[in-house]
Design brief:
Elements: E1 3-8, H1 16-23, E2 29-32, E3 41-45, E4 48-52, E5 65-68, E6 73-74, H2 76-88, E7 97-99, E8 104-105, H3 108-121, H4 133-141, H5 148-151, H6 154-174, H7 182-196, H8 204-212, E9 217-220, H9 246-251, E10 260-266, E11 269-271, H10 287-292, E12 294-295, E13 302-306, E14 308-309, H11 310-320, E15 324-328, E16 338-347, E17 350-352, H12 359-364, E18 366-373, H13 390-403, E19 407-411, E20 419-421
Parallel strand pairs: 1-9, 1-10, 2-5, 2-9, 5-7, 6-8, 10-15, 14-16, 15-19
Antiparallel strand pairs: 3-4, 11-13, 12-13, 16-17, 16-18, 19-20
Helix pairs in contact: 3-4, 3-6, 6-7
Protein backbone atom coordinates (compact mmCIF):
# COMPACT_ATOMS: atom_id res chain seq x y z
CA UNK A 1 0.00 0.00 0.00
CA UNK A 2 1.14 3.52 -0.77
CA UNK A 3 -0.50 6.77 0.22
CA UNK A 4 1.12 9.44 -1.90
CA UNK A 5 0.45 13.16 -1.61
CA UNK A 6 1.29 15.31 -4.63
CA UNK A 7 1.91 18.88 -3.52
CA UNK A 8 3.06 22.09 -5.16
CA UNK A 9 6.37 23.37 -3.79
CA UNK A 10 6.02 26.97 -4.99
CA UNK A 11 3.12 29.42 -5.48
CA UNK A 12 0.94 27.06 -7.50
CA UNK A 13 0.99 26.45 -11.27
CA UNK A 14 3.87 24.00 -10.86
CA UNK A 15 2.40 21.40 -13.22
CA UNK A 16 0.65 19.22 -10.64
CA UNK A 17 -1.95 18.18 -13.21
CA UNK A 18 0.65 16.48 -15.37
CA UNK A 19 2.40 14.92 -12.38
CA UNK A 20 -0.86 13.51 -11.03
CA UNK A 21 -1.91 12.23 -14.45
CA UNK A 22 1.47 10.49 -14.79
CA UNK A 23 1.48 8.99 -11.29
CA UNK A 24 -2.19 7.97 -11.21
CA UNK A 25 -1.66 4.95 -13.44
CA UNK A 26 -1.01 2.81 -10.35
CA UNK A 27 -3.65 4.36 -8.10
CA UNK A 28 -6.83 2.73 -6.86
CA UNK A 29 -8.10 6.04 -5.44
CA UNK A 30 -7.27 9.60 -6.49
CA UNK A 31 -8.62 12.31 -4.21
CA UNK A 32 -8.75 16.09 -3.79
CA UNK A 33 -8.58 17.30 -0.18
CA UNK A 34 -8.37 21.11 -0.19
CA UNK A 35 -9.02 24.29 -2.15
CA UNK A 36 -11.67 24.92 -4.74
CA UNK A 37 -11.99 25.79 -8.41
CA UNK A 38 -9.36 28.50 -8.07
CA UNK A 39 -6.88 25.70 -8.79
CA UNK A 40 -6.59 24.62 -12.42
CA UNK A 41 -4.89 21.41 -13.53
CA UNK A 42 -3.99 20.99 -17.19
CA UNK A 43 -3.78 17.38 -18.33
CA UNK A 44 -2.61 16.34 -21.81
CA UNK A 45 -2.92 12.63 -22.59
CA UNK A 46 -4.01 10.39 -25.48
CA UNK A 47 -7.63 11.40 -24.82
CA UNK A 48 -6.92 15.09 -25.47
CA UNK A 49 -6.19 18.25 -23.48
CA UNK A 50 -8.27 18.94 -20.40
CA UNK A 51 -8.33 21.90 -18.01
CA UNK A 52 -10.01 20.75 -14.83
CA UNK A 53 -10.54 22.51 -11.52
CA UNK A 54 -12.43 20.14 -9.22
CA UNK A 55 -12.52 16.59 -10.58
CA UNK A 56 -9.38 14.67 -9.55
CA UNK A 57 -6.93 14.21 -12.42
CA UNK A 58 -7.00 10.44 -11.95
CA UNK A 59 -10.39 10.33 -13.69
CA UNK A 60 -8.57 9.47 -16.94
CA UNK A 61 -7.60 6.01 -15.64
CA UNK A 62 -10.65 3.68 -15.69
CA UNK A 63 -9.52 1.68 -12.63
CA UNK A 64 -9.25 4.73 -10.37
CA UNK A 65 -12.07 5.89 -8.18
CA UNK A 66 -12.00 9.64 -7.64
CA UNK A 67 -12.95 11.35 -4.40
CA UNK A 68 -13.61 15.01 -3.57
CA UNK A 69 -13.27 15.44 0.17
CA UNK A 70 -15.02 17.68 2.65
CA UNK A 71 -12.00 20.00 2.69
CA UNK A 72 -12.87 21.24 -0.80
CA UNK A 73 -15.27 24.13 -1.42
CA UNK A 74 -17.41 23.46 -4.47
CA UNK A 75 -18.99 25.66 -7.09
CA UNK A 76 -21.63 23.18 -8.32
CA UNK A 77 -21.97 24.84 -11.71
CA UNK A 78 -18.26 24.31 -12.37
CA UNK A 79 -18.42 20.69 -11.21
CA UNK A 80 -21.37 19.96 -13.50
CA UNK A 81 -19.57 21.55 -16.45
CA UNK A 82 -16.49 19.39 -15.84
CA UNK A 83 -18.56 16.23 -15.64
CA UNK A 84 -20.22 17.13 -18.95
CA UNK A 85 -16.84 17.76 -20.61
CA UNK A 86 -15.54 14.41 -19.41
CA UNK A 87 -18.65 12.59 -20.58
CA UNK A 88 -18.35 14.25 -24.00
CA UNK A 89 -14.84 12.79 -24.20
CA UNK A 90 -16.30 9.32 -23.47
CA UNK A 91 -14.78 9.20 -19.99
CA UNK A 92 -16.99 7.36 -17.52
CA UNK A 93 -17.67 9.28 -14.33
CA UNK A 94 -20.73 7.41 -13.01
CA UNK A 95 -19.85 5.22 -10.01
CA UNK A 96 -16.28 6.50 -10.25
CA UNK A 97 -16.61 10.05 -8.93
CA UNK A 98 -17.75 10.60 -5.34
CA UNK A 99 -18.27 13.95 -3.61
CA UNK A 100 -18.38 14.34 0.15
CA UNK A 101 -21.68 15.73 1.49
CA UNK A 102 -19.49 17.53 4.05
CA UNK A 103 -18.04 19.77 1.33
CA UNK A 104 -19.02 23.42 1.66
CA UNK A 105 -20.59 25.25 -1.26
CA UNK A 106 -19.59 28.43 -3.02
CA UNK A 107 -22.73 30.50 -3.40
CA UNK A 108 -23.33 33.55 -5.62
CA UNK A 109 -22.84 35.97 -2.74
CA UNK A 110 -19.38 34.56 -2.08
CA UNK A 111 -18.24 35.50 -5.58
CA UNK A 112 -19.85 38.93 -5.35
CA UNK A 113 -18.18 39.61 -2.00
CA UNK A 114 -14.84 38.38 -3.31
CA UNK A 115 -14.95 41.04 -6.02
CA UNK A 116 -16.27 43.79 -3.76
CA UNK A 117 -13.57 43.15 -1.14
CA UNK A 118 -10.84 43.35 -3.78
CA UNK A 119 -12.37 46.53 -5.19
CA UNK A 120 -12.62 48.11 -1.74
CA UNK A 121 -8.96 47.36 -0.99
CA UNK A 122 -7.83 49.33 -4.03
CA UNK A 123 -4.05 49.28 -4.31
CA UNK A 124 -3.95 46.86 -1.37
CA UNK A 125 -5.89 44.14 -3.23
CA UNK A 126 -4.40 40.68 -2.84
CA UNK A 127 -5.15 39.52 -6.38
CA UNK A 128 -7.69 36.76 -5.72
CA UNK A 129 -9.29 34.78 -8.54
CA UNK A 130 -12.68 36.26 -7.54
CA UNK A 131 -14.14 32.76 -7.58
CA UNK A 132 -15.54 33.16 -4.05
CA UNK A 133 -13.02 30.81 -2.46
CA UNK A 134 -11.89 33.06 0.40
CA UNK A 135 -15.40 34.14 1.45
CA UNK A 136 -16.59 30.51 1.32
CA UNK A 137 -13.78 29.38 3.63
CA UNK A 138 -14.44 32.42 5.86
CA UNK A 139 -18.07 31.29 6.19
CA UNK A 140 -16.91 27.79 7.01
CA UNK A 141 -14.69 29.07 9.81
CA UNK A 142 -17.35 31.43 11.19
CA UNK A 143 -20.15 28.80 11.24
CA UNK A 144 -21.99 30.44 8.33
CA UNK A 145 -21.25 27.83 5.66
CA UNK A 146 -23.74 25.73 3.73
CA UNK A 147 -22.87 22.13 2.83
CA UNK A 148 -24.36 19.51 0.54
CA UNK A 149 -25.90 17.97 3.65
CA UNK A 150 -27.95 21.16 4.04
CA UNK A 151 -29.06 21.42 0.41
CA UNK A 152 -30.33 17.84 0.54
CA UNK A 153 -33.05 18.91 3.01
CA UNK A 154 -35.30 21.60 1.52
CA UNK A 155 -36.43 22.95 4.89
CA UNK A 156 -32.96 23.15 6.40
CA UNK A 157 -31.54 24.68 3.21
CA UNK A 158 -34.28 27.33 3.06
CA UNK A 159 -33.72 28.29 6.70
CA UNK A 160 -29.93 28.50 6.49
CA UNK A 161 -29.93 30.24 3.13
CA UNK A 162 -32.46 32.80 4.35
CA UNK A 163 -30.22 33.76 7.26
CA UNK A 164 -27.17 34.05 5.03
CA UNK A 165 -28.85 36.04 2.27
CA UNK A 166 -30.18 38.55 4.80
CA UNK A 167 -26.73 38.87 6.34
CA UNK A 168 -24.77 38.97 3.09
CA UNK A 169 -27.08 41.48 1.41
CA UNK A 170 -26.35 43.98 4.18
CA UNK A 171 -22.63 43.68 3.46
CA UNK A 172 -23.07 43.66 -0.32
CA UNK A 173 -25.22 46.79 -0.38
CA UNK A 174 -22.91 48.56 2.09
CA UNK A 175 -20.06 47.97 -0.37
CA UNK A 176 -22.09 49.28 -3.28
CA UNK A 177 -23.28 46.00 -4.78
CA UNK A 178 -26.72 44.80 -5.82
CA UNK A 179 -28.48 42.42 -3.40
CA UNK A 180 -28.93 38.77 -4.33
CA UNK A 181 -32.21 36.89 -4.53
CA UNK A 182 -32.56 34.09 -2.02
CA UNK A 183 -35.39 32.50 -4.03
CA UNK A 184 -33.26 32.32 -7.17
CA UNK A 185 -30.31 30.82 -5.30
CA UNK A 186 -32.59 28.28 -3.61
CA UNK A 187 -34.08 27.15 -6.94
CA UNK A 188 -30.71 26.99 -8.72
CA UNK A 189 -28.95 25.04 -5.99
CA UNK A 190 -31.75 22.54 -5.59
CA UNK A 191 -31.40 21.88 -9.35
CA UNK A 192 -27.64 21.51 -8.96
CA UNK A 193 -28.22 19.05 -6.15
CA UNK A 194 -30.66 17.01 -8.25
CA UNK A 195 -28.04 16.76 -11.01
CA UNK A 196 -25.17 15.87 -8.70
CA UNK A 197 -27.07 13.70 -6.22
CA UNK A 198 -25.76 10.40 -7.70
CA UNK A 199 -22.20 11.58 -6.99
CA UNK A 200 -22.78 12.90 -3.46
CA UNK A 201 -21.71 10.04 -1.18
CA UNK A 202 -19.79 9.99 2.09
CA UNK A 203 -16.22 9.23 1.03
CA UNK A 204 -14.79 8.15 4.39
CA UNK A 205 -15.92 4.50 4.07
CA UNK A 206 -13.98 4.27 0.78
CA UNK A 207 -10.90 5.59 2.54
CA UNK A 208 -11.16 3.43 5.65
CA UNK A 209 -11.88 0.26 3.68
CA UNK A 210 -9.20 1.08 1.11
CA UNK A 211 -6.56 1.59 3.78
CA UNK A 212 -7.43 -1.71 5.43
CA UNK A 213 -7.22 -3.44 2.04
CA UNK A 214 -3.83 -1.81 1.38
CA UNK A 215 -5.00 0.00 -1.74
CA UNK A 216 -2.94 2.71 -3.43
CA UNK A 217 -4.04 6.28 -2.82
CA UNK A 218 -2.92 9.38 -4.71
CA UNK A 219 -3.94 12.61 -2.99
CA UNK A 220 -4.08 15.90 -4.89
CA UNK A 221 -3.17 19.16 -3.21
CA UNK A 222 -4.61 22.33 -4.71
CA UNK A 223 -2.55 25.52 -5.15
CA UNK A 224 1.00 25.56 -3.77
CA UNK A 225 2.55 25.27 -0.32
CA UNK A 226 3.56 28.94 -0.26
CA UNK A 227 -0.09 29.99 -0.60
CA UNK A 228 -0.85 28.46 2.79
CA UNK A 229 -2.51 30.94 5.23
CA UNK A 230 -0.02 30.09 7.97
CA UNK A 231 3.24 29.34 6.15
CA UNK A 232 2.70 31.22 2.92
CA UNK A 233 3.20 34.88 2.10
CA UNK A 234 0.18 36.12 4.06
CA UNK A 235 -2.01 37.99 3.13
CA UNK A 236 -1.18 37.00 -0.46
CA UNK A 237 -2.41 33.45 0.11
CA UNK A 238 -5.50 31.30 -0.39
CA UNK A 239 -8.33 30.48 2.03
CA UNK A 240 -7.48 26.81 2.54
CA UNK A 241 -4.56 25.09 4.18
CA UNK A 242 -2.29 23.97 1.35
CA UNK A 243 0.13 21.82 3.33
CA UNK A 244 0.16 18.04 3.10
CA UNK A 245 -1.27 17.91 6.63
CA UNK A 246 -4.59 19.14 5.17
CA UNK A 247 -5.17 15.63 3.81
CA UNK A 248 -6.15 14.52 7.31
CA UNK A 249 -8.80 17.18 7.80
CA UNK A 250 -9.95 17.25 4.19
CA UNK A 251 -10.26 13.51 3.61
CA UNK A 252 -9.86 11.65 6.87
CA UNK A 253 -6.48 10.14 5.98
CA UNK A 254 -4.53 9.59 9.24
CA UNK A 255 -1.05 11.19 9.13
CA UNK A 256 0.74 7.91 9.83
CA UNK A 257 -0.80 6.38 6.68
CA UNK A 258 1.06 8.79 4.38
CA UNK A 259 4.33 7.22 3.26
CA UNK A 260 5.26 9.30 0.23
CA UNK A 261 5.14 13.03 -0.58
CA UNK A 262 5.94 14.11 -4.12
CA UNK A 263 6.77 17.81 -4.38
CA UNK A 264 6.08 19.26 -7.82
CA UNK A 265 8.41 22.14 -8.66
CA UNK A 266 8.74 24.10 -11.87
CA UNK A 267 12.28 24.50 -13.23
CA UNK A 268 11.77 28.25 -12.80
CA UNK A 269 9.28 30.25 -10.70
CA UNK A 270 5.93 31.86 -11.53
CA UNK A 271 3.20 33.56 -9.56
CA UNK A 272 -0.29 34.88 -10.37
CA UNK A 273 -1.64 38.03 -8.74
CA UNK A 274 -0.08 39.98 -5.92
CA UNK A 275 2.55 38.97 -3.43
CA UNK A 276 6.33 38.75 -3.31
CA UNK A 277 8.31 36.93 -5.99
CA UNK A 278 11.97 37.52 -5.10
CA UNK A 279 13.41 36.15 -8.34
CA UNK A 280 10.94 37.97 -10.61
CA UNK A 281 12.50 39.37 -13.80
CA UNK A 282 11.31 42.97 -13.88
CA UNK A 283 13.42 44.30 -16.75
CA UNK A 284 11.08 44.41 -19.76
CA UNK A 285 14.11 44.43 -22.08
CA UNK A 286 15.32 41.10 -20.70
CA UNK A 287 14.17 38.29 -23.05
CA UNK A 288 13.85 36.00 -20.02
CA UNK A 289 10.93 38.07 -18.71
CA UNK A 290 8.75 37.19 -21.69
CA UNK A 291 10.08 33.63 -21.92
CA UNK A 292 9.16 32.75 -18.33
CA UNK A 293 5.77 34.42 -18.22
CA UNK A 294 2.70 32.20 -18.70
CA UNK A 295 -1.08 32.44 -18.92
CA UNK A 296 -2.98 31.07 -15.90
CA UNK A 297 -5.40 28.18 -16.53
CA UNK A 298 -8.05 29.42 -14.10
CA UNK A 299 -8.11 33.18 -14.69
CA UNK A 300 -6.32 33.85 -17.96
CA UNK A 301 -4.08 36.32 -16.15
CA UNK A 302 -0.38 36.60 -16.89
CA UNK A 303 1.83 34.67 -14.49
CA UNK A 304 4.83 36.69 -13.41
CA UNK A 305 8.04 34.82 -14.14
CA UNK A 306 11.40 34.49 -12.42
CA UNK A 307 14.38 32.20 -11.95
CA UNK A 308 14.24 29.04 -9.85
CA UNK A 309 14.22 29.86 -6.13
CA UNK A 310 15.89 26.97 -4.32
CA UNK A 311 15.28 28.59 -0.94
CA UNK A 312 11.48 28.52 -1.17
CA UNK A 313 11.47 24.99 -2.56
CA UNK A 314 13.83 23.83 0.19
CA UNK A 315 11.54 25.33 2.83
CA UNK A 316 8.31 23.96 1.37
CA UNK A 317 9.74 20.46 0.90
CA UNK A 318 10.93 20.44 4.50
CA UNK A 319 7.69 21.68 6.06
CA UNK A 320 5.68 19.20 3.97
CA UNK A 321 7.99 16.23 4.45
CA UNK A 322 8.66 15.75 0.73
CA UNK A 323 10.42 12.53 -0.22
CA UNK A 324 10.82 13.18 -3.97
CA UNK A 325 10.64 16.01 -6.50
CA UNK A 326 8.80 15.98 -9.81
CA UNK A 327 10.56 18.74 -11.78
CA UNK A 328 8.49 20.26 -14.59
CA UNK A 329 9.08 22.44 -17.65
CA UNK A 330 12.82 21.92 -17.89
CA UNK A 331 12.44 22.28 -21.66
CA UNK A 332 11.49 25.96 -21.29
CA UNK A 333 15.01 26.74 -20.07
CA UNK A 334 16.61 25.35 -23.23
CA UNK A 335 16.63 28.83 -24.80
CA UNK A 336 19.10 30.40 -22.36
CA UNK A 337 22.89 30.67 -22.44
CA UNK A 338 22.94 31.37 -18.70
CA UNK A 339 20.45 30.35 -16.04
CA UNK A 340 20.22 31.68 -12.51
CA UNK A 341 19.24 29.86 -9.31
CA UNK A 342 18.49 31.75 -6.10
CA UNK A 343 20.12 30.10 -3.09
CA UNK A 344 18.83 32.53 -0.43
CA UNK A 345 18.41 36.25 0.24
CA UNK A 346 20.06 39.30 1.74
CA UNK A 347 18.04 41.53 4.03
CA UNK A 348 19.54 44.51 5.84
CA UNK A 349 23.00 43.27 4.96
CA UNK A 350 22.44 39.77 6.41
CA UNK A 351 22.01 36.41 4.69
CA UNK A 352 18.50 35.16 5.49
CA UNK A 353 16.08 32.42 4.50
CA UNK A 354 12.40 32.35 3.63
CA UNK A 355 11.23 31.60 7.18
CA UNK A 356 13.10 34.65 8.54
CA UNK A 357 11.00 37.15 6.61
CA UNK A 358 7.47 38.49 6.46
CA UNK A 359 5.76 38.82 3.09
CA UNK A 360 6.57 42.53 3.03
CA UNK A 361 10.23 41.89 3.82
CA UNK A 362 10.46 39.09 1.26
CA UNK A 363 9.20 41.47 -1.40
CA UNK A 364 12.25 43.69 -0.83
CA UNK A 365 14.84 41.02 -0.10
CA UNK A 366 17.72 40.69 -2.53
CA UNK A 367 18.09 37.18 -3.95
CA UNK A 368 21.53 35.60 -3.86
CA UNK A 369 22.11 33.92 -7.20
CA UNK A 370 24.24 31.10 -8.50
CA UNK A 371 24.67 31.27 -12.29
CA UNK A 372 24.97 28.08 -14.35
CA UNK A 373 25.54 27.62 -18.06
CA UNK A 374 22.57 26.71 -20.28
CA UNK A 375 22.45 23.90 -22.82
CA UNK A 376 20.78 25.48 -25.87
CA UNK A 377 19.37 22.23 -27.21
CA UNK A 378 15.91 20.76 -27.80
CA UNK A 379 15.29 18.25 -25.01
CA UNK A 380 11.60 17.52 -25.64
CA UNK A 381 12.41 14.12 -27.14
CA UNK A 382 14.54 12.93 -24.21
CA UNK A 383 13.12 9.91 -22.37
CA UNK A 384 16.17 8.90 -20.34
CA UNK A 385 18.20 11.14 -18.03
CA UNK A 386 21.32 10.27 -20.00
CA UNK A 387 19.61 11.67 -23.14
CA UNK A 388 19.74 15.17 -21.65
CA UNK A 389 22.70 17.44 -22.45
CA UNK A 390 25.35 17.36 -19.71
CA UNK A 391 24.53 20.90 -18.60
CA UNK A 392 20.83 20.07 -18.28
CA UNK A 393 21.76 17.09 -16.13
CA UNK A 394 23.99 19.34 -14.02
CA UNK A 395 21.12 21.83 -13.58
CA UNK A 396 18.87 19.09 -12.19
CA UNK A 397 21.63 17.81 -9.93
CA UNK A 398 22.30 21.34 -8.64
CA UNK A 399 18.64 21.68 -7.68
CA UNK A 400 18.82 18.37 -5.82
CA UNK A 401 21.84 19.50 -3.82
CA UNK A 402 20.42 22.92 -2.96
CA UNK A 403 16.96 21.63 -1.99
CA UNK A 404 18.12 18.41 -0.33
CA UNK A 405 15.46 16.19 -1.94
CA UNK A 406 16.06 13.84 -4.89
CA UNK A 407 14.57 14.73 -8.27
CA UNK A 408 12.92 11.49 -9.38
CA UNK A 409 11.02 12.74 -12.43
CA UNK A 410 11.87 15.41 -15.01
CA UNK A 411 9.21 16.73 -17.36
CA UNK A 412 10.44 17.88 -20.77
CA UNK A 413 7.08 18.65 -22.38
CA UNK A 414 3.37 18.89 -21.58
CA UNK A 415 2.44 15.41 -22.81
CA UNK A 416 2.19 12.44 -20.44
CA UNK A 417 4.98 10.57 -22.21
CA UNK A 418 7.36 13.55 -22.15
CA UNK A 419 8.57 12.50 -18.72
CA UNK A 420 11.93 11.13 -17.60
CA UNK A 421 11.90 8.79 -14.62
CA UNK A 422 15.27 8.57 -12.90
Amino acid sequence: MTVTIVMGAQWGDEGKGKAIDYLARDADFVARFNGGNNAGHTVINPLGEFKIHLVPSGIFYPRARCLIGGGVVIDPRVLIEEIEILRAAKIRVAKRLFVSPRAHLILPYHKILDGLYEQAKGAGATGTTRRGIGPAFADKASYNGIRWHDVADEKIFAEKLGVQVALKNKIITALGGAPVSGDEIFADYRKYYATLKPFIVEVYPFIAKGLRAKKNFLLEQAQGALLDPDWGTYPFVTGATTLTSAATAGLGIPPRAVNRVVAVAKAYTTRVGGGPLPTEILDASDPAQHALQEVAVTTGRIRRGGWFDAEIVRFSTQVNGATEIFLTKLDILSQFDEIKIATGYRWNGKRVGYADLSAEQLAHAEPVYRAVRGWRADITGARQFADLPARAQQYVETIEKLVGVPVKWVSVGPEREATIKR
